[in-house]
Amino acid sequence: MTIQDRSDALTPEQTANLKEFWRLLLALFQQSPNTTPSKAGPSSDLTGDELRTAFWAFVKYDNPDCLILRYLRARKWDVEKALAMMLKTFKWRKAVNIDEIVKQGELHALKTRDEGFMHQLRSGKSYIYGKDKEGRPVCMIPARLHKAGDQSQESLEKFTVYLMETTRLLHQAPVDTSTILFDMTGFGLANLDYAPIKFMAMCFEAHYPEYLGLCLIHNAPWFFQSIWKIIKGWLDPVVASKVRFTSGVSGLFEYLDKDNIPKSLGGSKDWLYEYKEPLSGENRSIDNPTDEEREQKKILESDRWSTIKEYEAVTMKWGEESSTTPTQGGDPDSRNILKKELIARNRALDRFVRARTYYDRIGMVENSN
């Protein structure tokens, strides 16, 4: 069962925790630049406006409650620890410049000759393909295609967060987790590189909690067992519990349907990853907008923030109520209506804030424009 499946079936205690998280978060949004952080709870060196902007940028097309529930579950429903974890994520996303990476995208990397980043895309060492039996998008990683000296660690980390953000676009409610399939066929010691694995583990544990649904390690050679012992030691037990070892196509059938397995792995899908280069002008609404587009973006941004303000006001009222129903506040359906409205606002703004990806170009991203 996914997080969104359970968001409307919380226990009274869990609903109270969700409300408390919202109360603390909304209070932080009101924090002025000169406010001394409270010693009574989690604090941040970001201003209230920066925190607010960071939160709603992170939400994107998610249910805001579900994003918060990820952190609450990751910290076993301890509200202050969950909020502190999220605040660290905001700071990390700002330092890594994730929103700018997403806005600039592949075409920018091509134009600026970011060869390390483009190599990740062109090599096919990691790509999203199909879904597992739970409807989760699957990130395929043919480990034999990776060699540590082919790119810098910076390029690998940039590509990793870029792919994580891209995968989020492919989540379709109620599914909000992903599967990773490490194809170890042909893997040798020349392909071993601990640094990107450590970084990926850190991302899932610290900044993308509850995004990993399943990790398959397929056709691992015999010597990988000693490597796995090292890697497992780095992992949070919750993340480690999601790892499964499979062998042969029959091993994959437990998790993936045959038509979601490429022929290269014994499936029926006659498909090979072949990177499609960015198109000149595909990000024109970002790079060189017309006056009409600038005005359109301004209106869309204003509408988005108006919806956010309404959602925050309704959520504040709901958070102060004694009712433990997670979706209600004032008008019983108001939060759900505003949530759907916010998703629509964000989709309308998408072409102004997100560069097109390979998955847009091949038609995998819905409502891409």
Features:
CRAL-TRIO_dom_sf, disordered N terminus, five-stranded mixed β-sheet, CRAL-TRIO domain-containing protein, 16 helices, alpha/beta, 2 domains, CRAL/TRIO_N_dom, Phosphatidylinositol Transfer Protein Sec14p, PITP/CRAL-TRIO, 369 residues
In words, what does this structure look like?
This protein has 2 domains: 3-97 and 309-361, no CATH class; 113-265, CRAL-TRIO lipid binding domain (Phosphatidylinositol Transfer Protein Sec14p, 3-Layer(aba) Sandwich), CATH 3.40.525. The longest helix has 30 residues, at 291-320. It has helices spanning 3-6, 12-29, 48-59, 64-74, 79-96, 98-111, 115-123, 153-169, 194-207, 224-234, 237-240, 248-252, 284-287, 291-320, 334-353, 358-361; strands spanning 127-131, 137-142, 178-183, 212-218, 243-246. β2, α8 (153-169) and β3 (178-183) form a beta-alpha-beta unit. Strands 1-2-3-4-5 form a 5-stranded mixed beta sheet. 53% of the residues lie in helices and 8% in strands. It is α/β, with parallel strands linked by helices and 369 residues long. This is CRAL-TRIO domain-containing protein. It comes from Dactylellina haptotyla (strain CBS 200.50) (Nematode-trapping fungus).
